[in-house]
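Issue 218. Parser rejects a valid record. Input:
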Amino acid sequence: MNRIPRSCLTLIPVLGVLLSWPGTGSAEPDTVQADPPGVKTVFEQLKQLQGSWRGEGGVIGAEPGPVEHEFSVGAGGSIMVELMDPNGERELNVYHLVDDELLLMHFCGGATQPVLKLDTGAAKPGILPFVLAGGTNFDPTVDRHIHTSKLVLLGNSKIESWWTAEKAGNQVMQSRFVLERLPEP
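Output the parser choked on:
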């Protein structure tokens, strides 16, 4: 009997969600899906964030504290993983392309998994706004969940990360992180 390695078992729920997302089924072999201008370029820019970042931030209105984020490219270059607060709560973001969209799946400390997509109409060079497109383990009309995210690329060594949460249609939290790239060891 073939056994699935334990390390792969944690990825099975993630893959199930990603494969069940609309538009993620296999395309006909002779069908070519065109990306909107810039989506692949934006994803390639995100991959350039690979490394360790440190700074400060937190919920707006509260005292900011020290934060760390780690970015890494995985799955043959098809995903960019962001580990927020690697020594604490360990929230996780997975950026990936699906057809003509750049998606961000946020694995939240609140045990929800909102999926956000790049708002290509509002995106500008260096400013990447993401808006809620679905998710699992929450009802967006009732439950608290991450609703928007914005990544601001301030050159090769500095970024800002903005997040909002909503509950029952009302914004209940906004946070901001300002991070600088750590030198490679």
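Fixed in the parser; the record now loads. The radius of gyration is 17 Å.
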